[in-house]
Amino acid sequence: MQANTKMQVTTALALGSAVLLLLPGCAGSSGTASGTYYGQTGKGSDPAIITVDGDTVTWGDFGCDTVGEIDMDDSDTSIGTLDKTRTSVAWTQEGRYSNTDPFTESEDGSVITMSGGTYSKAGTDAGDALLAEREDTCAEKADAQEKRETAQAEQAEADAKIKPAFDKALAALLKAGQSGDFSGADSIFANSGITADEFAGYLERNYNGLSADEFFSELQYNPERAELLLEEMKG
């Protein structure tokens, strides 16, 4: 009698455990992660974004073109599906990630770890701090790019003004090279209205880094090669 009672209790406990395993939220992760998360990958600590919508996970670079959002057209963007236990993601659209990667979510859904990277939810202190930091970085990059473009435009305008003098000096130098007579080389720049430094700077900027030393060396010993070099290097 005691054996039968013990068996019934054991069977009831086993059935109870099975039922609990089948109930949502009683096995594996609680599945509370949802929304947008900011963090860094485990592959080089690059800034990245993860969005979770149900069992769909989307990973993307935290770029400056779409700050705070995933660029769905970027080749690195990866889309995957969480397994039933929400402990791994299988990538169905491969980009930076492929095959499967481990996935965990905190009990309150505020933090995700995926393939060695940690991500904090937007709206939390940690998530908002990451977003603000990235926004500052992107703003600095945009400002630096604007300054570079302004400087390039100003330099292009300055180069346009000295181009006639450069062309005049260049023609005179090529003529001297062909004749092999460099006796009047010192006066070429003065007669052309350009200094040697201005000539060298224009040459380097507009002939893909060609230095004056390299050009003059070719001009002196191989003037035909000097002319070919100008054609090859002209921007």
TrEMBL record:
**Residue ranges of coiled coil:** 134-161
| The keyword Coiled coil belongs to this UniProt entry's keyword annotation | yes
What residue stretch is flagged as signal peptide?
1-29
In terms of superkingdom, the source organism counts as Bacteria
Arranged from A to Z, the UniProt key words for this protein are: Coiled coil, Signal
* Protein name listed in UniProt: DUF4476 domain-containing protein
Q: Which organism is it from?
A: Leucobacter luti
Cite the source lineage. Bacteria, Bacillati, Actinomycetota, Actinomycetes, Micrococcales
